[in-house]
Write a structure and sequence with these properties.
This protein is α/β, with parallel strands linked by helices. It has nine helices and 14 strands. It has helices spanning 3-20, 65-72, 89-92, 95-103, 132-140, 219-225, 255-264, 277-281, 283-290; strands at residues 27-33, 46-51, 54-61, 81-83, 110-117, 156-163, 174-179, 182-188, 197-203, 206-210, 231-235, 269-273, 298-300, 306-307. The strands form two sheets. It has a seven-stranded mixed β-sheet. Strands 7-8-9-10-11-12-13 form a seven-stranded mixed β-sheet. The radius of gyration is 21 Å and the shape is globular. The chain starts with a helix and ends with a strand.
Length: 309
């Protein structure tokens, strides 16, 4: 082969290689934790959402998610939004570790916006929960357990927004953040006596909706915010009645109802997460129950899984 022919062949190869190079999806989900509160080998609930290939949004931070983040080799340098569905330990236990890692991941001041539910003062046997702003202050405020973090490596500023999660909260989704094609909406969920929030992320005509832990009283709001969503992340903890303990149905949604909501909202793809051991053992029957109403793709989450809507 002549030098001219060789150069021509290399040029063609380079051109076709550039054409074939993968393009990052505008929206991508990484499952950091797909388990619940038990020590079952899965990390607790937690996710990172990538925008145009860059990690930007952290959703919940259950125990074990910090290690999963390292395994995924995802940078924290651009994460500036944290969405908390509720304040149970299995959804927030790793927050201090994440914030410290975020503080040392860049070369300048750190500014993070945190969103989460309003508080609840329990009466009788009900538990009390602080508002998210008070919760963050207890961790990182001037008198907080980790107050040193504010200027440990770089100046750290945490701005917290409490989202109305009361019984009188609005029944329509509200946009809580909007920026250059990114819209984050929220609506009150319901998880027993724990104030809870449902979130939806829209970015360049793709969307991901997170149910959080949700019982029957939050289903209508989930159906409203999830309309036509590309990916619905639905926490799946219990079997259809009477397969699980009765008290668990006051906190979580059974598979048949999950299928109804996914079908009614015309969800494009369903990701089942926050999985309990009983769900792992009965995946076939869980999927069959959901499919009595929902005919779209169903995926059972695994720690470290990457999904595009």
């Amino acid at each position: 082969m002549s030098k001219l022919s060789l150069f021509a062949a290399l040029a063609v190869f380079a051109a076709t290689s550039c054409i074939a190079a993968p393009v990052a999806s505008p929206l991508e989900l990484v499952v950091l934790g797909s388990g619940g509160p038990g020590a079952t080998g899965r990390a607790g609930a937690g996710y990172v959402v990538l925008l145009d290939g860059k990690p930007r949004i952290l959703i919940d931070a259950g125990p074990g998610t910090f290690v999963r983040l390292g395994e995924a080799k995802l940078s924290l340098a651009n994460i500036d939004i944290v969405l908390l569905t509720h304040l149970h330990i299995d959804h927030t236990g790793e927050l201090p570790g994440f914030f410290k890692a975020r503080a040392v991941s860049g070369d300048g001041p750190v500014n993070v916006r945190v969103f989460g539910p309003t508080g609840h003062h329990g009466e009788g046997d009900e538990a009390s929960f602080p508002s998210t702003s008070h919760f963050i202050d207890l961790l990182f405020g001037p008198d907080g357990a980790y107050s040193y973090l504010r200027d440990f490596a770089e100046p750290v500023t945490i701005n917290t927004t409490d989202i109305d999660a009361s019984t009188n909260a609005p029944k329509t989704p509200k946009v809580i953040y909007a920026e250059q094609g990114l819209d984050i909406s929220a609506i009150a969920g319901h998880h027993g006596d724990a104030p809870a929030v449902i979130y939806r992320i829209d970015y360049h005509h793709q969307s991901i909706t997170f149910s959080g832990d949700i019982d029957a009283n939050g289903i209508d709001n989930l159906r409203r915010i999830a309309q036509h969503t590309n990916l619905l992340v639905f926490n799946c903890v219990v079997l259809d009645p009477p397969g699980s303990r009765p008290v668990l149905y006051t906190l979580h949604t059974p598979p048949k109802t999950i299928g109804v909501v996914a079908a009614d909202s015309e969800t494009k793809k369903l990701l089942l997460s926050h999985l309990s051991p009983v769900i792992d053992q009965r995946q076939a029957s869980v999927e069959a129950s959901i499919r009595t109403h929902y005919k779209g793709p169903i995926v059972f989450a695994q720690d470290g899984m990457h999904l595009q809507p």
